[in-house]
């Protein structure tokens, strides 16, 4: 485990994040049901986390020329053209890189609501405010 500290230029605050890497991350088999996540990026302030899963090239599958089959241990499969080249986007005002065909991936995995639904559990995405707002109007 490694701890990272982020110094915010806006608020002059320091936040602490933990990178927790699964000791079995190098075992690529999707058959091990207890070994789907390769790591976790954890916000030590509030406990929220992002699971990390690595992409692996599937040498056994030939899609067509210049198209490579990729997979994650959690069972998801992609063509390299779905992922690369990564494209620039913004999340909460921060520049990030996302898969080339991220809309297509979201549609296939979660359906059309994934691109239009602004509510998830007790949160609602507020596009004009950079962030997520609780449905009871408290900013998260």
Automatic annotation (TrEMBL):
Bilayer topology reads: Single-pass membrane protein
Q: What is its main location?
A: membrane
Keywords from the UniProt entry:
Glycosyltransferase, Membrane, Transferase, Transmembrane, Transmembrane helix
GO molecular function (one): glycosyltransferase activity
Presence of keyword Transmembrane helix: yes
Report TM segments: none
Record bears the keyword Coiled coil: no
Q: Where in the cell is it found?
A: Membrane
| A GO term from the CC aspect | membrane
The record's listing under InterPro entries reads:
FKTN/MNN4/W02B3.4-1
* Record-linked PANTHER family: FUKUTIN-RELATED, PROTEIN (MNN4), PUTATIVE (AFU_ORTHOLOGUE AFUA_1G03790)-RELATED
Q: What is this protein called?
A: Mannosyltransferase
From which source organism is this entry?
Lithohypha guttulata
Q: What is the lineage of its organism?
A: Eukaryota, Fungi, Dikarya, Ascomycota, Pezizomycotina
- Which gene is the coding source of this polypeptide chain? MNN4
